[in-house]
Amino acid sequence: MGRSFKVSYEKDMALFQNNWVRAWLVVLIVAMMACPLFLNRYQLSVLNQMGIAVIGALGLNLLIGYTGQISLGHAAFMAIGAYTSALLTTKMGLSFLVSLPLSGLMAATLGLVVGVPSLRLKGLYLALGTLAFSFIVEYVLFHWDLTQGDRGLGAAPIRIAGLAIKTEKEFFYLIMSCAALAVLCAKNIVRTKIGRSFIAIRDRDIAAEAMGIPIAKYKVMAFALSSFYAGVAGCVAAHYQKWIVPGSFDVSVSISYIAMIVIGGLGTILGSVLGAILITGISPGILYVVDILKGSYPALGKLIVDFRLAIFGLVIVLTLLFEPRGLFGLYRRCKVYWKTWPFRY
Amino acid sequence: MGEGPGMGSRAPVPHQDKQTRKGGRSMKSTRILAVVVTAVALCLMGAGAWGKEVRGVSDTEVKLGFMVDFTGPGKYSGPPLAMGGEIYTKYINDQGGINGRKIKLLVEDNGILPNTTMEAAKKLILKDEIFAIAFNLGSSGSTAILPLCEENQVVMMPHGANKRFYDPGNKWVFVPYSTQYNMAAVAVEYVLSKNPQAKIGIIYQDDDFGIDGLEGARNAAKFMKSSIVKEAPYKIGTVDMSPQMALMKEANVDWILLWAYLPQIGSILKEKQKMGWDVKLIGNNTTAYPTLFPLVGDLAEGYLAVTPVAPWENIADKYKQIIKKYGDFDKVNDPNFPTGLLFGAWAYCAAMIEGIKNAGRDLTPETLIKGLESMNLDMGGICPNISFTPKRHCGYFSSMVLEAKAKEKKWVIVQPIMEPKSPQ
Fold first, then answer.
1. How many CB pairs below 8 A link A and B?
2. The pTM is what?
3. Is residue A18 in some structural domain?
């Protein structure tokens, strides 16, 4: 227990708190590397979806969880990233490695534009403003000849150093690398002055301003950063799905992302990851249960399909009811219980 | 080494030394070994080819995916569509299946939206390992999953398809149903055949579904040396149609083409009555269901709809007997049941199964494509006969025109199955 005490700010802010964390990280990396050896293509496809969701959820958590700026336009920024990359790779022949950051930058630039009204809008009004932005993006995608409306747009196949990324397994390594990088960057952002400023603005913006934090700058920056993450997630999703249509980025996607960070834990990096895994995994999980029950209890299987959305909602309500701080709170409770066992605090 | 030109005989030559004789024997053994290895390799290759596994196909079964909407915006259509596919499959399996194999239909909820359709398609293709998708509801979803189908060599039959699914077309996509483009063409040609001077307007949903109808209408009007005088779009989900109707009134049109769904049609019919305007209305297949009658009552009288599927009253008795044997006949016979959906799905299943039949016992994605491209399926009046060719992956362009009879709560055919004259 004694070794857990931190006696300096450096130790308190360290990326990896102790050797146990490093060891577990190595185990996780090895396990992830080995996943394609044991999982089938469908299971890998579910993990790939989770990986993309992790990137998007991290971005939204930086905005909502860390800075306290609500947004219902996250899917619109993902769409901007996806369409930017599709256009850059197909029309201009750029490689994926170039289009990936450019997609993020394009989304971030538009995020800056949307961030400006956030200086005057708060709470529900800001939510409505971002929702309006998402409708505008959807309208443009439907009606602009370049984006080909409902007909959709193809994203060029990925080639990295002469290696084509085609199979679920190859995408698994690519997406997980991107997700890991996104986690690392987010973890570092929140440790810096920027991250601390975000938190200060979230907790009490007037007090933050009184302490000398330029609120306007950091609010707009939060929007830009969040949009960058969304753009990157959209870009990866576009190349993974190979074909994108405006309907893939409707408002229900934004709501799913909000559910991810609320259930995972607002204002935590681990929460974003856990929430993305849970929300993305519910649907395939239900399908697995239905398949198991289909043989023995066909009526029950059908009932589960009929009530799939209700089950989805129930999982969310129960999680929030029993652990309002989300999955991260649950993790913390387990950790504290383990560390203090056999004592109860 | 004694076998070259001019050396002729294989008999041992007296002056050959021991080493040479040993070399000859060694050569002979090598050759025998090579022949044996080649033969074994050929056998293994052959066996590999014969025993090559095709996803979703076993000696006794073919797995087909059937994607309908049970939970999304089109969920009202899910149960009748699924019922159509299941009844036809049961009927075929009861006849002994196709080429010695039973059909296993895996019905999956696709939620109609692109993301949910992608989830369902991945489950069917990657987890359940289906051979082909006999039905997929929704054009956006079908577009989204097309690369997945191409990559995994899955033939897909999209429902609610647009012209682009057959023009320019795709090797893996077959549409055994007329598209909105074709139906709008039939509607315009019907109107202009009644009155060549008719002023036609169109109210359409501002998405792929509505725009496909708009383009079909424009093309047909141009072909008939006429034009669409007023176009009024509405955004998905809008139900109040009074602004669009006001635009039509302003343009003083004689006929309004409605490329919209039932809730909008209900609103338009009510608005028409409110305005006291005797304008004629003609809509698309998604509105040609008995559900219109409880929605608007007597206002439905005289409303026309273009659809390729015959109303229940015109379905031949032999098909009704099949439903009686393999489905819930009382449910289907209910005046409010959307039989158009059931028989639409039936036709999809019939087309896919006919393709499988034509492919023969050696069933692979490639032979299925050949089987489909050579089919000419008599649909017995349920809908136009379905035929594909290597250059045309749309089963037919024809449709019929139905008229709503509000008092009897039924649809009657006012123009039988007809192919549009304008180029499709």
1. 71
2. 0.82
3. no
The Cα–Cα gap between B22 and B24 comes to: 5
CB atoms within 10 A of CB A299: 8
Using alpha carbons only, how large is chain A's radius of gyration in Å? 21
pLDDT tens, A141-154?
988 889 888 888 88
pLDDT of residue B6: 36
The number of domains in chain A is 1
Contact yes or no for B258/B288 (Cβ under 8 A): no
Q: Determine the structural domain holding residue A310 and report its residue range.
A: 45-245+252-340
Report the top-level CATH class of B181-307+402-418.
alpha beta
What ipTM was predicted for this assembly? 0.81
In a domain, A1, yes or no: no
Handedness of CA B212, B215, B221, B222 (dihedral sign): negative
Which residues share a beta bridge with B403? B304, B412
Distances (CA, A) of B285 to A6, A218, B67, B264: 71, 54, 19, 14
Q: In this predicted model, what pLDDT tens digit does every residue of A199-242 receive, in sequence order?
A: 999 999 899 999 999 999 999 999 999 999 999 999 999 999 99
Chain A environment of B144 (Cβ under 8 Å): 152, 241, 243-245, 247-248
What tokens appear for A323 in the block?
């652990």
pLDDT digits (tens, 9 = 90+) for B277-303: 999 999 999 999 888 999 999 999 999
How far is residue B148's CA from residue B118's CA, in Å, rounded to a whole number?
9
Closest by Cβ to A245, choosing from B114, B119, B126:
B114
Dist. CA B120–CA B139, nearest whole Å: 15
CA atoms within 13 A on the CB side of A333: 9
Is residue A23 included in any domain, yes or no? no
Which residue of chain A is at minimal alpha-carbon distance from B129? A42
Tokens found for residue A160: 């990295």
Question: Tokens 């349920």 sit at which residue?
Answer: B382
CATH number at residue A119: 1.10.3470
- The candidate with the shortest Cα–Cα distance to B105, out of B123, B87, B117, is B87
CA proximity to A161, closest of A104, A95, A102: A95
Question: The CATH number of B61-177+314-393 is which of 3.20.20.80, 3.40.50.300, 3.30.470.20, 3.40.50.2300?
Answer: 3.40.50.2300
Buried b or exposed e, range B110-120, using 16+ CB within 10 angstroms: bbbbbbbbbbb
Contact A150 B211 (CB under 8 A): yes
- Chain A: give the shortest CA distance to residue B147, in Å: 6
Average pLDDT, chain B: 88
B117 inside 8 A of chain A by CB:
no
Residues whose CB falls within 8 Å of the CB of residue A113, separated by 6 or more in sequence, listed in order: none
Cβ neighbours for A95, distance < 8 A, ≥ 6 positions apart? A89, A159, A160
- Can you name the residues that pair with B415 across neighbouring β-strands? B401
Rounded-to-integer distance, Cα A44 and Cα A66, Å: 31
